[in-house]
Structures are given as C-alpha cells and as structure tokens.
Amino acid sequence: MMEAKQWTVQIFITEEGDDTRARAVLTTQDTSTVTGRGEARRNPIDRPIPEIGDELAASRALEDLAIRLHDVASDDIVQLTGPADPRTPSR
What we know:
Radius of gyration: 19 Å
Largest sheet: 3 strands, antiparallel
Low-confidence stretches: none
Structural class: alpha+beta
Strand content: 25-35%
Strand order of the largest sheet: 1-2-3
Distance between the termini: 27 Å
Number of helices: 1
Helix content: 25-40%
Mean pLDDT: 91
C-alpha cells in the first residue's frame, strides 16, 4: 500500500540595509525539523533590487538545508541500518 507524506518548507527572509538573511525550515509529519541558513549582501555599486538578495539568500538557505538533511539521513543510516538483532547473521 502506498503511503503519501507531506513535508513543509518555510522560508523566512529578513533584510537589514544591504544584507539579506534567509532561514529555510523543513518540518516533517512527525514534527522533526531541520533548518538551513543563507545570506546575501548587495554590492554598494549595484542598483538596490531587494528581490535579488531574497533569491540569493533563499537559495543558499535551501542549499544549506539540503546538506543538513543529507547529514541527518547519513547519521540515521549509520545508527539504524543493519540487522535488527546483532546476533542475526547477514545474508
């Protein structure tokens, strides 16, 4: 039987002067959360287009989130895979 799951990612963006920060928060069905962070800084000679800073910071936060989620999965593999009973021989 197929099970459908839904995970939610929320992105929170803050701007202060030429600096933009983003936080991407993944929430799973069992209420686990993983958070990624990203930053962007506008070059003072560039035109002030806040959307570009938002896009860069958000993309960096999502990239960081992906790395952190991969680390969580890797840790789970190390800790939770293998035979249920250590005395059970592998095939």
